[in-house]
Amino acid sequence: MNLTTSDKDTILVVDDIPENVGVLYTVLNQHFKVLIAKSGKQALKTIEMVLVDLIVLDVMMPPGMSGFEVCKILKSQKETQDIPIIFMTALADTVNKLKGFELGAADYVTKPIQQDEILARINAHLKIRKLQLQLQAKNKQLQQQADELAKRNNIIIQEKQKSDKLLLNILPIRVANDLKETGKTEPEAFDNVTVFFSDIIDFTKISSQLETPVLISELNSIFTTFDNIIELHQCERIKTIGDAYLAVCGMPEKNSNHAENIINAAIDILEYLTKRNQNMTQEKWKVRIGIHTGKVIGGVVGIKKYIYDVFGDTINTASRMESNSEQMKINISDTTYRIVKDKFKVTPRVPLSVKGKGKMNMYFIDNS
Hints:
Blueprint: E1 10-14, H1 18-28, E2 33-37, H2 40-49, E3 54-58, H3 67-75, E4 85-89, H4 94-103, E5 107-110, H5 115-170, H6 173-182, E6 188-200, H7 203-209, H8 212-232, E7 236-241, E8 244-249, H9 258-279, E9 287-301, E10 307-311, H10 313-323, E11 330-333, H11 334-340, E12 346-348, E13 352-354, E14 358-360, E15 362-365
Parallel strand pairs: 1-2, 1-3, 3-4, 4-5, 9-11
Antiparallel strand pairs: 6-8, 6-9, 7-8, 9-10, 11-15, 12-15, 13-14
């Protein structure tokens, strides 16, 4: 019967007495691949060259390195610290037995060596060692799987952050959060909203004179600054339509200063364009701005491509305010004027006819 736990495990026998070595070799060679070292120093050199599965180590090997010293060195090195060591000691040598265990020995046998005992102890510790190796391999595999899972989770988190950022770029924060949390968002009516419309004057003419990349770069630069100004004044950019820019204040987050905030944003936008034009050697970008206050409905349009849009007569009237404005002027409706008349200087205009509205009172904001 083969008493080993696998095909030919490698056993290193370390003893300086030839008779002991001969006995052990005879007993073990039938079941294991046996290596012999006659000193502690030779044992360490052997282990550097050959991976062994177990060591049978004599405690006393005068005058050279003792078994304890060899054990201490092996247990201090990561590569060899888990190799099981069985000490050989004298029958009544209790002190050395205890010292061996303290140094990390797995077991001991007493001299004279009993064949059945040494084989049983070796096989028991080889089985334990193999289980340890299997456990280490499994732990390594699990760690690799955990690392891979963490890597994938990190990718998912990064992609989610990108998705959330993209969502916030196209939707107001509250609407985006509702959509993330519930998967839907309901249209909502707002009673007090001030709407901002702007349009670039002579855009068609300018666009025909510029290369497409230059045109897109210019619009991106201008509208990015518009976005920053609008956000600074707690307003919300809704969308751009070609060269037109639509923003609101008072929705989806309600704001009691909606009219004042969006007019201040409009003033800052004109100041920005004025300074920009002074520093430009090419095209001078000029706009008309119209502002009106009233009821607005807001909601997400679309299923696959979400767009937050606004609806209602207030939007149309704000657009009419813009079309009836003038170059680098802010034209506000009478409704908006009544809200901010004590906060801004205005220039009354002659009532103008507005399509579908008849004659309407309008005012230019004095931002000079």
